[in-house]
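Tutorial, part two.
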Amino acid sequence: MSRIGRMPVVIPAGVEVKIDGPTVKVKGPKGEMTRTFVGDMSITIDDGKIMVARPGDDAGHRALHGMTRALINNMVVGVSTGFERILEVNGVGYRAELDGKILVLNVGYSHPVKMEPPSGISFEVDARTRQIKVMGSDKEAVGQMAANIRMVRPPEPYKGKGIKYLEEKIRRKAGKAGKV
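Running the prediction step on this input gives:
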């Protein structure tokens, strides 16, 4: 059996879970999320824990078992504590700032790039460390917004200028060899 799929999802205090067939609704202090899963998986609440079981040992069921449990866990964690992704802006003259809720990036183009957050996502900018923090309750939306910000100016391998994830390591290349 799937090691991830067998693990129960613990429901923390302040989080309310409702299961209606394949649809799971999770409500907590950070928001509310609803997702419909494949009808083959049986999702049950037992003693403050959510359990996911699969009907058979079919390869498709094995694949969906762990994924279903992981998605439910992400929903529970998202509405209770939330998710965040930190990006770093590197380069001379490159900076990020907030204009209300809109993120304004000055990263070497002839114009500033403005990015408006979708619902459920918020930004925080630290001008001193030049970091952008993307926060929200939906892990998928937070990751996609962070990827969209990084795509504005991906880091380049020669000087390392651009927008990168905080934990990302940029493989650096040597420049042209000078005349001898």
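Helices lie at 3-6, 59-80, 139-152. In part three we will examine how such features are distributed along the chain.
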